[in-house]
Amino acid sequence: MSDYLATVNWTRGDGGFLAKQHSRAHEWHFDGGAVVAASASPHIVPTPWSSPENVDPEEAFVASLASCHMLFFLSIAASKNFVVQSYSDSACGRMEKNLQGKLAFTKVFLRPAVEFAKGALASEAAIMEIYHLAHEKCFIASSAKAEILIEPVI
């Protein structure tokens, strides 16, 4: 068992709190010392009460899925002796009403593009197997209710 810690800090500042005209900007602090400027999504809370330049929880959810998948992909590729030169994923989460009528992520599309080092001959079938194994091993994906679709760019 492992525990993962994050501290979320927010201070009211100026603005009408009861009128919901207060800043949603806040910070995420992680145990390794990283601090991330965060906010409510401007799709949910309009500016000026949200900060579009900050990371919002919805973006972080999509990024955590893409990151987890990538890390397993790299590990599995290395174990199969395929040298990965670069990996980029233009992930997209779709939020809409679910079957219960609640707003939720219903799908997350992972769109990884992988470049292998010169001489690393990986067939399309071998690459697809690595994607599949990475998805099976990704514990963030195993924790999510949203359907996660992998649409590799090959």
Helices and strands, with pairings:
Elements lengths: L5 E4 L5 E2 L4 E2 L3 E5 L4 E4 L18 H23 L4 E6 L2 E6 L5 E8 L1 E5 L7 H14 L1 H5 L3 E4 L4
Parallel strand pairs: 8-10
Antiparallel strand pairs: 1-4, 2-3, 4-5, 6-9, 7-8
What does this structure look like?
This protein is of the alpha+beta class and 154 residues long. The protein has 2 domains: 1-55, no CATH class; 57-150, K homology (KH) domain (GMP Synthetase, Chain A, domain 3), CATH 3.30.300.20. Helices cover 27% and strands 30% of the residues. It has 3 helices and 10 strands. Strands 1-4-5 form a 3-stranded antiparallel sheet, with no helix packed on it. Strand 4 (26-30) and strand 5 (35-38) form a beta hairpin. Helix 1 (57-79) packs across helix 2 (124-137). The chain is elongated and about 60 Å long. It starts with 5 loop residues before the first strand and ends with a strand.
Which features does this protein show?
154 residues; alpha+beta; GMP Synthetase, Chain A, domain 3; 2 domains; three-stranded antiparallel sheet; elongated
Précis, in short:
Helix content is 27%, strand content 30%.
CATH architecture of the largest domain: 2-Layer Sandwich
CATH topology of the largest domain: GMP Synthetase, Chain A, domain 3
User: What low-confidence regions span 5 or more consecutive residues with pLDDT below 50?
Assistant: none
The shape, in one word, is elongated
CATH superfamily of the largest domain: K homology (KH) domain
Q: Determine the number of helices (DSSP H or I, runs of at least 4 residues).
A: 3
Helix/strand-derived category reads alpha+beta
Sheet with most strands: strand arrangement: 1-4-5
> What portion of residues belong to β-strands?
25-35%
Q: What string gives the helices and strands in order?
A: EEEEEHEEEEHHE
Q: Just give the CATH class of the largest domain.
A: Alpha Beta
What is the mean predicted local confidence, pLDDT?
94
DSSP, total strands:
10
What is the percent of helical residues?
Answer: 25-40%
State the separation between the terminal residues, measured CA to CA: 36 Å
